[in-house]
Amino acid sequence: MQLGRTPQSIYLCQQLREQGICDEKVLDAIANIPRQLFVDEALAHQAWDNAALPIGQGQTLSQPYIVARMTELLMQANIKRVLEIGTGSGFQTAVLAQLFDEVYSVERIKVLQFQAKRRLKNLDLHNVFTKHGDGWLGWPTKAPFDAVIVTAAAALLPEQLVEQMRDGGLLVIPLGSEQQSLFKIERHGHSVTQTYIEPVRFVPLVNGELA
Ligand code: SAH
């Protein structure tokens, strides 16, 4: 399996540019990934639509626009080690792996974690480490991280994720339940600053038992 641009992926990136995504490194990282490998074969013909797609277990592969938007928020020179919560299909993980030195990703549904791990290995993305676990708890043994990205909506700001960021670190997270908004949160010592980005729609960051 190889990374590489295709006519469909180049067309999708053109649409993303029109929606305001302007970081060419992010667009390249998205264009390089064979998105059809991240969904069920029956949905492969829709893989290049700029839309969210089901990945089983009641979960969804995020819309390319939101993957691009969230990734763009992380593009700072001093960000090298990234924690992702909600691996899902592994598509966002594959984007991050091309842009940052090390990516750690936590997923609560075992079967999704297993499939994502296999896809990422098949694409030779060896700077990615996945774990079956509860994202509310982060990945304490690998902390501190330069940035954390959460791809499920949290009802409250997960304290442990803030603690696992280095000073000056960045957290990109959808907050809310019915009404959700994307926020960029920066940690400065013991205080945080929160910047509103835009309204979003994600599956919930689930509390409790692993599946
Ligand atoms: N970035 C993924 C989005 C998947 S949807 C993609 O593009 O495919 C969100 C994911 O978050 C789901 O797979 C869901 O199982 C996972 N999730 C929800 N609550 C979680 C938790 N507490 N810990 C870890 N993962 C969680």
Automatic annotation (TrEMBL):
GO terms for biological process: methylation. Its EC number is 2.1.1.77. The active site is at 62. It catalyses: [protein]-L-isoaspartate + S-adenosyl-L-methionine = [protein]-L-isoaspartate alpha-methyl ester + S-adenosyl-L-homocysteine. Its main location: cytoplasm. InterPro entries: PCMT (IPR000682), SAM-dependent_MTases_sf (IPR029063). The keyword Methyltransferase applies. Signal peptide: none annotated. Pfam families: PCMT. Catalyzes the methyl esterification of L-isoaspartyl residues in peptides and proteins that result from spontaneous decomposition of normal L-aspartyl and L-asparaginyl residues. It plays a role in the repair and/or degradation of damaged proteins. Belongs to the methyltransferase superfamily. L-isoaspartyl/D-aspartyl protein methyltransferase family. PANTHER family: PROTEIN-L-ISOASPARTATE O-METHYLTRANSFERASE (PTHR11579), PROTEIN-L-ISOASPARTATE(D-ASPARTATE) O-METHYLTRANSFERASE (PTHR11579:SF0). This is Protein-L-isoaspartate O-methyltransferase. It comes from Celerinatantimonas yamalensis.
